[in-house]
Specification:
With 265 residues, the chain is of the alpha/beta class. The protein is built from seven helices and eleven strands.
């Protein structure tokens, strides 16, 4: 086969693939085009949000920016209930950065932003949150969402986050709970945190913790763990203060509290 003929076939395949990709994008676009839902992370509307999760939750993920319920709730809380946008300089630590919120955090000119993770390739620094290599009292704000359930020694991680937070600073430390994002086959007695280091198989972790890379399932004593680390903790029922239209349009979960953790001056 001549080089010219081979080149023409190659060009045809490239054009064909582009055409198929374009059609798929149009199908997805048409499926979600509408005004029923609004994502405050990307400021775009859609007819509905996409399902998400091991047992898919309906109206969970924004089709435009992939933000989930917790991302939309966190950003709403930060903008309405904290001093995050007051234009005063703040040094911020973002653990396990999510693209949906990273863009928003970095767009604030008064925020000195640092993202950190042990494995995430997009993190600015590599960090083990049980051994944070920063001195005491460095950060004004810490955001750490759905991370501690992956950490073997979560109590040590909480103490480290407290240590590097400035006096008067605050942190939002979110974890999944059974009533929000998890599907658990094995119930917890008294709804306390359950962890067992002998549970190591994917099957058993999924059954007990709801996800194969989780090492515990948090319960009603989560707030006590944070307090033991030194934090002044408020489990803010902010989402239940919102009107029903806002909750529905943003696709929020009424069971998700915000854990606002402060370090006393």
């Amino acid at each position: 086969m001549s080089r010219m003929k081979t080149s023409k076939i190659s060009q045809w395949w490239i054009a064909r693939r582009r055409s198929i990709r374009h059609r798929l994008q149009r199908l997805i676009f048409n499926k979600f085009t509408g005004l029923g839902r609004y994502c405050n992370c990307c400021q775009k509307t859609s007819r509905k949000f996409k399902p998400f999760g091991p047992l898919p939750r309906e109206n969970a993920q924004c089709p435009n920016c992939d933000a989930l319920e917790r991302h939309r709730l966190s950003w709403l809380y930060l903008t309405q209930k904290t001093d995050f946008l007051d234009n005063r300089p703040k040094k911020m630590l973002h653990i396990a950065p999510m693209t949906q919120l990273t863009r928003l955090f970095q767009s604030q000119p008064h925020i000195d932003y640092l993202s950190a993770d042990l494995e995430h390739p997009n993190a600015m620094v590599k960090m083990d949150i049980t051994k944070i290599e920063y001195s005491d009292n460095v950060f004004d704000v810490i955001y750490c969402s759905h991370v501690l359930e992956h950490v073997d020694d979560d109590r040590k991680a909480m103490r480290e986050l407290y240590r590097v937070l400035k006096p008067g600073g605050w942190a939002i430390l979110q974890v999944p709970f059974p009533e929000t994002t998890l599907h658990i086959e094995e119930p917890i007695e008294d709804e306390l945190t359950f962890e067992d280091p002998t549970i190591i198989s994917d099957e058993e972790r999924l059954r007990h913790y709801g996800q194969v890379d989780h090492v515990r399932r948090y319960g009603s004593d989560y707030q006590d763990r944070l307090k033991d680390a030194g934090f002044i903790v408020k489990a803010d029922e902010f989402v239940r203060e919102l009107n029903s239209r806002t909750v529905q349009r943003l696709g929020l979960m009424l069971t998700e509290d915000i854990y606002l953790c402060r370090k006393q001056n």
